[in-house]
Amino acid sequence: MKTKSILKATAMAVIVGGTPVYAQDMDALIAAATDDGMLSTIALPHSWCGYGDVIAGFKEKYPDIEVNELNPDAGSADELEAVRANQGNTGPQAPDVLDVGFAFGPQAKDEGLTMDYKVATWDTIPDSAKDADGHWYGDYYGVLSFVVNTDLVDNVPQDWEDLLKPEYANAVALAGDPRASNQAILAVMAAGMAMGGEAGTASGEAGLEFFSKLSEAGNFVPVIGKAGTLAQGATPIVIAWDYNGLAWRDTLEGNPPLEVVVPASGVVAGVYVQAISAYAPQPDAAKLWMEYLYSDEGQLGWLEGYCHPIRFNDLAAKGAIPQEMLDALPPAEAYEQAVFPSLDEQAANKEAVTANWDSVVGANVQ
């Protein structure tokens, strides 16, 4: 008899602030997840948001659950496609859990690609960053920044307009394909807002025009930027989340030296969200993974990877954040102008960017 049936019998609904929260019997959940025996993740590079240590922490805590890591470099659109393509597939190719950009959460729910689940710390997640029914919930956020190889770039750009200067020929790359990657889509939004476009369709259109100019100037490199391309000099400047840039800086250990700059304008903050696939072959392992991520331990794991966890304010209020973690973050004033676009604004921007990148910019990022 599978232990999943025990879990169903021991789950108990309670009310917190008028919202139903499902308080799991953790012993039963651990038993059911152990019975699953495996957790299939997707799109979790170890250098992204401290995921290498987060995954290691989960393995150490639950050694009987194998973590099957699918396509670490996938974008948010790729994650949803993996769920669509593996409906009914109980093999290791099917992801159990998703970590996607904010705008992709509602899309996944609308398509029936997610299941509802509310973690024990549900009430400490801001209402603005979660689906009321529990289909998706914010996990962490950061801001778009310039990650610069200072061995190759003498004058470090401080704002978006700087990137158009001739001195940055064949130097500037995105950290993803703007037709599929949430990071890249929001980078176009940030550039568009710096150019005066309001968040939404206008920012997408203005951002496309900016990247068209960048490409025409010979400054845009149609290669997905990452630590390796920075180190090799293929992409001396990469537009990426601040936490990715800071992690790459640590990984490269000064060879070459990297500088991470939050631009003076167009500072866009992006929230990512977690979800469980509606077709998860290992649903209980997926639920246990969520409980781990949203525990204090999991949230601090993201913070150690330079991401602001969604429960940051709750952790800070109860003094749960070690001072050395706070000291390792960029100065607070770098984030003062950060804009958190709404779901509607992100959706409108995403539609403008993904539908028109090829016709306006014409650069095949890969």
TrEMBL record:
Organism: Salipiger aestuarii
SUPFAM superfamilies on file: Periplasmic binding protein-like II
Signal sequence range: 1-23
GO cellular component terms, semicolon-separated: outer membrane-bounded periplasmic space
Manganese in keyword set: no
Protein name, per record: Putative spermidine/putrescine transport system substrate-binding protein
Coiled coil: none
Key words, A-Z: Signal
Pfam families associated with the record: SBP_bac_6 (PF13343)
Record-linked PANTHER family: ABC TRANSPORTER SUBSTRATE-BINDING PROTEIN, THIAMINE-BINDING PERIPLASMIC PROTEIN-RELATED
Biological processes per GO annotation: thiamine transport
GO molecular function: thiamine binding; thiamine pyrophosphate binding
